[in-house]
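User: I've been trying to design a sequence by hand for this structure and keep getting stuck. Would you show me what you'd pick, starting by listing the structure so we're on the same page?

Assistant: Good idea, let's start from the same input. This is the structure you sent:
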């Protein structure tokens, strides 16, 4: 029995609802909860989902060489996938406390969310940082390393902070990888704690003063 729609389209929509990234289990659960596909006639549908992702990702050996739609978020074999062309919007991201106090209008808020959570930009920033630091990811402010503290669950985890405030950007400005600071969750919150935002150097200085 044919499916109501292609598996590829269903996977893409499921990942968009997940915010652009998700583990294989997240993707399976979201597709099942959507209730669109015919699961009864295909008891091995999860294999089909996984295989479809592999075929449309240049990160996999079985990539079909056509549309490069998915990327491996944490490296091959980690089971976490993202959409290469995903762009956050007000409808597919959860607002944080920082976002909710953003006072420059909806257009600026959308730009802020996109720049802060663009998975493609953060992924490139991570890859460059690892290449320059012996394969490690750690906070550029305090040096915290999620992998060394939490083990495998913390591998390749770090948050991306946009160092240039949206208020200083003009229409048409393009965010560069160099504008992204890789920081731990605590330092990220502290960088946003004041208006205007603290710089990495300022936050490091505050930490050094407290330690004296």
């Amino acid at each position: 029995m044919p499916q109501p729609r292609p598996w590829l389209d269903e996977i893409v929509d499921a990942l968009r609802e997940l915010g652009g990234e998700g583990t294989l289990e997240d993707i399976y659960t979201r597709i099942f909860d959507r209730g669109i596909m015919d699961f009864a006639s295909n008891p091995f549908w999860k294999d089909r989902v996984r295989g479809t992702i592999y075929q449309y990702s240049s990160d996999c050996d079985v990539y079909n060489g056509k549309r490069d739609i998915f990327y491996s978020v944490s490296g091959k074999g980690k089971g976490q996938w993202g959409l290469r062309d995903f762009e956050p919007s007000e409808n597919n991201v959860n607002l944080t406390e920082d976002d909710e106090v953003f006072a420059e209008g909806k257009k600026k808020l959308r730009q802020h969310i996109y720049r802060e959570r663009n998975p493609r930009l953060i992924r490139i920033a991570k890859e460059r940082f690892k290449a320059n630091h012996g394969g490690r990811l750690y906070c550029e402010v305090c040096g915290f390393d999620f992998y060394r503290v939490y083990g495998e669950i913390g591998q390749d985890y770090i948050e991306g902070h946009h160092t240039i405030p949206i208020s200083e950007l003009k229409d048409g400005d393009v965010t560069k990888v160099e504008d992204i600071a890789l920081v731990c969750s605590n330092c990220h919150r502290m960088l946003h704690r004041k208006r205007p935002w603290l710089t990495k150097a300022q936050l490091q200085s505050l930490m050094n003063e407290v330690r004296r």
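That's my pick for every position. To get oriented when you compare it with your attempt: Strands lie at 21-23, 70-72, 80-83, 159-162, 180-183. The longest helix spans residues 119-132.
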